[in-house]
Amino acid sequence: MNQPPDFGPVAVLTLIFGYAFAPQIAAVVAPYVLIMVAAVAGSAMRLGQIGATPRGGSFWLVFYSTLIAMCFTVPLAAYSASKLTGISETGLYGFVSFGLGYIGDQWPRVIRFVGGLIKSGLELVVKKGGSE
Q1: Torsion, Cα of 59, 10, 95, 93 (10° steps)
Q2: CB-based burial of residue 93 (10 Å sphere; 0-12 exposed, 13-18 middle, 19+ buried)?
Q3: Do the Cβ atoms of 113 and 82 come closer than 8 Å?
Q4: Are 30 and 13 spatial neighbours (Cβ–Cβ below 8 Å)?
Q5: Is 6 helix (H, G, I), strand (E, B) or coil?
Q6: How far is residue 31's CA from residue 59's CA, in Å, rounded to a whole number?
Q7: Cα(41)–Cα(102) distance, integer angstroms
């Protein structure tokens, strides 16, 4: 049975890098290049919203955002792909790394938001359990 060709970003980058490197090396390098480029694009959007930063501040924001994206994109994409049907893990790399790069230095705000969601969910469970 014929399968449709894969035109995902990782597959296309693997094909492109396959012309410059060995196919085995291209298969390893392509996902990381995609993650890095998407994270830099996300942190560049964050920089555009922040405006003027002190000298070197822009570099460190992009550096830390990209580093965080390089570390956490694959686990978050794997978890998301396991919960969503019909989406491959490699297809989510660009979106997840862009989002992580876009969050940038706003992690305390994101953690407070998620903590608030968990707290309100626990309060709802406690109220529901207490009323019965």
Answers
A1: -80
A2: buried
A3: no
A4: yes
A5: coil
A6: 23
A7: 8
- Tokens 């990381």 -> residue: 32
pTM score, whole prediction: 0.80
| Largest interatomic CA distance in the chain | 67
At 40, the amino acid letter reads V
Tokens representing 72 are 């956490």
Q: Which of 131, 58, 69, 124 is nearest to 95 (CA)?
A: 69
CA 21 – CA 33 distance, rounded (Å): 14
For 22-70, what is each residue's pLDDT tens digit? Answer: 989 999 999 999 999 999 999 999 888 887 778 788 888 899 999 999 9
Written as six digits, the tokens of 20 are 């410059």
120 Cβ partners below 8 Å, 6+ apart? none
Residue 124's alpha-carbon distances to 43, 114, 128, in angstroms, are 36, 15, 6
Q: How many residues does the chain have?
A: 132
